[in-house]
Every structure is written in structure tokens, then in C-alpha cells.
Amino acid sequence: MEMHNPAHPGEVLKEYLPENLSITDAAHHLGITRAALSRILNTRAGISAEMDLMLSDALGTSPGFWSRIQVQYDIWKAKQKRHTHIARFPVVA
Fold it and tell me: If one looks up domain 9-81 in CATH, what number appears?
């Protein structure tokens, strides 16, 4: 199912992190820099497969949950920029 303007995974992650947990403490818990987590939360960086697994462990989400959000977001963004339609390959008999 195609989404209209799906959320960046960083926006979703903000909702999953405990309210009283600082970005510094969350980053330390994940074993990443505060800057790296901040870039995700502020929608300037995406979720890698490795980050997906770390977040899945830390938050109890299923492996692939964060990557699926990232892919939906990336495809939607690409469709917004795309201007040229590419025809299908011809059928070779």
C-alpha cells in the first residue's frame, strides 16, 4: 500500500524513545555518537540496516521495522523528484 507523504523514520523514532531519555543518553545506550542520533531524529540521516537492528534490540521492535519505514520514505521522496517515465523493456520472443 502506497503512503502519501510518509514520515521520516527519525520522526517515528522520536515517538518511540522514552520521554525522559536525553539524546545523549539514548546515543550512549545505542553505542553511537550523539551527532549521529541527532541527524536521524532531525531527518538529516536515514536508518541503516545496522541501526535498524540496534533500534530493534533497544526498543523491542521487529528486525526490519525501521528499514521498512526508511524504504517507504525514500521511495516517496524519489517519486516526488522523478519527472521522466521509463518505458518497459520490449518483450523478446
Answer: 1.10.260.40
